[in-house]
């Protein structure tokens, strides 16, 4: 796969996006992200034993995981190309497809909304607990909606726009390498006693990998908002004002753009492991947090993704 965005690359991207939008994550097929997760789990114990310095062990874990992931994807494409161009195309589309998560994000978050529509608060809390890290017991409907909106907004960046960005930049191998970085952060990037040192490199590299995509996501949300019956000016104003109101150097930008587009306030108090953590607020409470806000952020996610695809196709046409 060429490092340049050529016509055959455009077809691969379009096919992958279409498959993700229609079918979602192919969980019944061999999945590179599952294999990456198993590799991380198998390496962790050995690296901890071999290296006395946990940061050094974490650096090795990062390098090996990302290197093997990129190399395996590139090798698969090379081997498929030896068989036939059609095999190479199918392999490239599959790797690109599994790197995207828009449909899965929608499906999993929609379970929260569906429970709320039924008036099933316990069911909504349970569904939310599967997609957020905070405690959900006792949350009322606005707080449940806030959790769902924040999750969709944040994951639009690292689950949709970022892999698409790297797919367009360097083809399927770079998209899979990004998924390896993202998986490392989700597995070892915690700031607790076990992973504070061992996961340091993975967490920092994930921040670096998402630096441009997070800000790109915010801008795409600003541009897509008017086409989604939302406020583009509000998205721009709140992103500029509150984009840094987050513990993550990146997550605040898509969350702030979404909050401004929706006219809602995100952030605030969350409970983790029995302890209440007060987070900076993002946005202004112009309208209440209802299911309308959830529907709006889902539209914003799809609108941002499709806008990025369109912009890249237009740029390619001019080239």
Portion in helices: over 70%
Helix count, DSSP H or I runs of 4 or more residues: 12
Low-confidence stretches: 1-6
Terminal residue distance: 18 Å
* Strand order of the biggest β-sheet: 1-2
Mean pLDDT: 93
Radius of gyration: 20 Å
Beta-strand proportion: under 5%
Question: Which structural class do you get from the secondary structure elements?
Answer: mainly alpha
Q: What is the string of SSEs from the N terminus onward?
A: HHHHHHHHHHHEEH
Backbone shape = globular
How many extended strands?
2
Count of spatially separate domains: 1
Could you describe the largest sheet, including whether it forms a barrel?
2 strands, antiparallel
Pathway: Cofactor biosynthesis; adenosylcobalamin biosynthesis
Protein name: Cobalamin biosynthesis protein CobD
Subcellular location: Cell membrane
Membrane topology: Multi-pass membrane protein
Task: Name some characteristics of this structure.
two-stranded antiparallel sheet; 71% helix; 12 helices; disordered N terminus; mainly alpha
